[in-house]
Amino acid sequence: MNISISDGVLRATIDTYGGKIVGLTDGRREYIWQDTCCYWPDRAGILFPTSGRVYGGEMTYAGKRYAMPLHGFAYTSEMKLKHKSSSALVLTLSGDGTDGIYPFPFEMRVTYTVTGKCLNVDATVTNTGVGEMYYTMGFHPWLNVPIESGHEFSEYSVCFPKAGDVHKCVMSDGVLDTGKREEYALCGNGIKLRHSLFDNDALMLDGTNGEAVILKKDGGMALALRYTGMPYIGLWHLEKREVPFLCLEPMTALPGRDGVTEDWSERKDVYRLERGQSKTTGIEIEILGNTGV
Predict the structure, then answer these.
(1) Burial call 199-213: b when 16+ CB within 10 Å, e when fewer
(2) N- to C-terminal Cα distance for the chain?
(3) Which of 92, 98, 173, 188 has its CA 20 to 30 A from that of 135?
(4) What is the pLDDT of residues 122-138, one digit of tens each?
């Protein structure tokens, strides 16, 4: 079910199936990719309790094996509408730890709020069980590039205004973490987009420090994604295809390690919550005016 919220400037449309952002418009242009019938049949939403793949499609905990699909299960789950106002809504998803996929009882509340030219998405996970729980979190907005009609994908760049020492996280052919890191030289503070960047799947980076801006060199509409506290971001579109969209995928942890069946209690970068504890992770998408590199 699609639900729209607006404060009069920006309208966001959210699908309760997976918590996906399926629309974001200021009335003049649409910023979220729409054409699912031509290139890809779906869009990923909330990535929980994993981001990316894990080796062998399974994880372990307390000596048991649990199937774990790509990007976890939240983005393929129907969420419940908990609250809605004109400019905000709250979706919830919960589990009792007995489904054979995820062994920890939890509740997740995802709050979507539109304010001015910004959409904020905040996912709060609460441990509703009696023991410690483990998870990672990510987001996966599909963004129209070019942003404005009449332009080309290659006219745009993704800039990282707060970048420090940026490294490429080298993935295996199966898009799993090899553990290798390579210095990644930015052009200025960004990456000039070209379709061939994604011939070998996603480009995974660390050191970007929580902000990415899609913009055109000679000015025009731009879009900022902020992901405070999330150390990694993936850039992706379909491999070896010239498609008019770009996915920016901020995440708290990388995909699983190549050749290693991960145990929840030992996985690197995992979030840990004690009984009754909660943690919020979020993103902000802001529509910017005319700007340039």
Answers:
(1) eebbbbbbbbbbbbb
(2) 38
(3) 173
(4) 999 999 999 999 999 99
Q: Which string of DSSP letters, residue by residue, matches 171-213?
A: E-TTS-EEEEEEE---BTTEEE--GGGGTTS-EEEE--TTEEE
CA pair distance 191, 230, nearest whole angstrom: 19
Do 55 and 256 form a contact (C-beta atoms < 8 A)?
yes
171 vs 23, 191, 192, 254, 256, CA distance in Å?
Answer: 31, 19, 21, 10, 10
Average pLDDT over residues 102-107: 98
Q: Which CATH class is domain 2-284?
A: mainly beta
Distance (Å, whole) CA 21 – CA 288: 18
Round the average pLDDT of the chain to a whole number and report it: 94
Which pair of tokens denotes residue 192?
């000039």
Task: Count the helices and strands in the chain (H runs, E runs).
Answer: 0, 24
Assessment of whether the complete model's pTM goes beyond 0.70: yes
Burial class, 293, CB count within 10 angstroms (exposed 0-12 / middle 13-18 / buried 19+):
middle
Q: How many CB atoms lie within 10 A of CB 67?
A: 14
